[in-house]
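Lab notebook page, bench 4
Experiment: in silico fold of construct C2
Operator: M.H.
Input chain length: 90 residues
Purpose: comparison with the prior construct
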Amino acid sequence: MCSLFLRRMKFVEPIRDRKKIAQIKNLLRGQQRYRDLLLFIIGINTALRISDLLQLRLSQFLDETGKIKTNSGSKSGNEGNGMKSRSTKA
């Protein structure tokens, strides 16, 4: 049973060609598929699996006032979620 599963597994290689990455981004932008564009950009920059990307929620990135949360720099994990808010004003 296990060997049958291993024979059917497909391996995925990362996209390394910057031109191909730009083409994919432009295609998604042109089709106004902004959710997919965001998932693609986060995926290529973090190397998260699609199953992990799909579990992300907006509340993990924005606080209750709509400000973007940023990493506090703490790696100890003892300070809540390790995020603090910052203003999005330019």
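Observations: The first strand starts at residue 68 and ends at 71. The chain has two domains: 16-56, 58-90.
Next step: discuss at group meeting.
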